[in-house]
Amino acid sequence: MSTSDPTASPTTFDLERRVDCAESTLHTTRSAVVALGSNLGNRLETLQGAVDALADTPGIRITAVSAVFETEALGGPGEQPNYFNAVAVLRTSLPPRDLLDRANAVEDAFGRVREVRWGARTLDVDILSYEGVTSDDPVLLLPHPRAHERAFVLAPWQDADPAAEVPGQGPVGALLDVLVGQPGQVVWRREDIQLRLPE
């Protein structure tokens, strides 16, 4: 007796194998590194909220969070408040574009406005690297094309993962050593405040 109900049709071995492959892919995770920055409003509360929002995302597990580093604003309009910067190291099953969509959604949730290039912002969430992936797509360049030139990125990244490397550029620590003392590359670690790693 035939039926149009696909759940009642015999399942072939090939279909079972393909479903099993898809299932295993869903549970395959890769490492990714995300930079967080804020220079408007309650900067610490915003960074912690971003960490919590990322941790609450299905397919993301935060494995390390850096200390908070403070820096002067570089570029853009003058007289901006100083930034608080941090880095989160993730394990994720989300593809890079989905991770970017989530990062943008978190920015939007904290009132990020994109009107002035390099202007002050409540929250900045940038993907620095994604394990095994390089991309020259203008929407998502991987690894981040300027990460190796920014002490405010490298200092928290090294704190979160001392053995980290910027793909194609070298160890984070060595890259940071080159920048120390250069104009516009001053960062200082805030020992009086910290971010909590979600449980």
Low-confidence stretches: 1-13, 15-25
> How would the global form be characterised?
globular
- Helix-strand string: HEHEEEHEEEHEEHE
Radius of gyration: 20 Å
Integer average pLDDT = 86
> How many helices does DSSP assign?
5
- Total number of beta strands: 10
What structural class results from the helix and strand content?
A: alpha+beta
Percent of residues in beta strands? 15-25%
Largest sheet: 6 strands, antiparallel
Terminal CA distance: 53 Å
Helicity, as a percent range: 25-40%
Give a quick rundown of the structure.
The protein has 199 residues and is an alpha+beta fold. Helix content is 30%, strand content 24%.
Q: Could you outline the blueprint of secondary structure elements for this entry?
A:
Blueprint: H1 13-26, E1 30-38, H2 43-55, E2 60-65, E3 69-71, E4 83-92, H3 96-109, E5 124-130, E6 135-137, E7 140-142, H4 151-160, E8 165-166, E9 170-171, H5 172-179, E10 187-189
Antiparallel strand pairs: 1-4, 1-5, 2-4, 3-4, 3-10, 6-7, 8-9
Can you walk through the features of this model?
- With 199 residues, this protein is an alpha+beta fold.
- The chain contains 5 helices and 10 strands; from the N terminus they run H-E-H-E-E-E-H-E-E-E-H-E-E-H-E.
- The chain has helices at residues 13-26, 43-55, 96-109, 151-160, 172-179, and strands spanning 30-38, 60-65, 69-71, 83-92, 124-130, 135-137, 140-142, 165-166, 170-171, 187-189.
- Strands 1, 2, 3, 4, 5 and 10 form a 6-stranded antiparallel sheet that branches. A two-stranded antiparallel ribbon has the order 6-7.
- Strand 6 (135-137) and strand 7 form a beta hairpin.
- Helix 4 (151-160) packs antiparallel against helix 5.
- It is globular.
- Mean pLDDT is 86; it is low at 1-13 and 15-25.
